[in-house]
Specification:
The protein is mainly α. The chain is 63% helix and 4% strand. The chain has 2 domains: 86 residues, no CATH class; 143 residues, no CATH class.
Amino acid sequence: MLTVTCLHEIYPPQVADHPVYPPDYADLERAFATLQANFADFCDGAVMVDFTLEEDAYNPVFYGLEAFRDALAELLPAAEAQAIYQLLDREKAGEQIGNLYRDVGRRYILAFCIASATLAAVPLPFATMPVLTALQVSMVGVLGQLYGQTLTPSQAGGVASAIAGGFAAQAIGRELIKFIPGFGSVIAASWAAAYTWALGEGACVYFGDLMGGKKPNPEKIQAAMQTAFAEAKERFKGMNR
């Protein structure tokens, strides 16, 4: 199937947004007809779409998605068509893809959580904090690569700081509690694992928004981290006992 995109590039100068689909502009229709003629021997159908980024200010972002879905459905057997409908449902596609990436990301996050707990269990307040921070920054870099974002250590550190927000106090509290002999290190270890898990969940939300062409939402990220931290504290409670 021939899929023609970047439609807005040849909209009339006075047009600032997508029209009702399908677009009815002479230059666009002429270009589309020419492409159909040129590729007639190579495809069984053609459709116009224009998938843009949120900052491009075109609405909807996935212009022509329904037409694209329907055109694919016509070319596929019934079972495959149903799968395409489910995959390309505009309301669910982002969530489904995000869940797939997050499930993979959690495998990496868990490994970093275990390493963080091991470091935080050292009963010396603030001694392991730089190493632990570096470990968490590395995790953000790894998750970035999973979502197609290649980051330098400095950039990964910037992302970690940006999404951590109000969780900095948790890091300080984790170190201070080590002053309690024995029991303090156990609590610090479980908190470090929980914080690392929450940071990883926040990073997944952050990178998921970027991958979907959206601007990361700080409130959404913080909400995800708060929920993840509360759940992870129970999950990792007393893990070094």
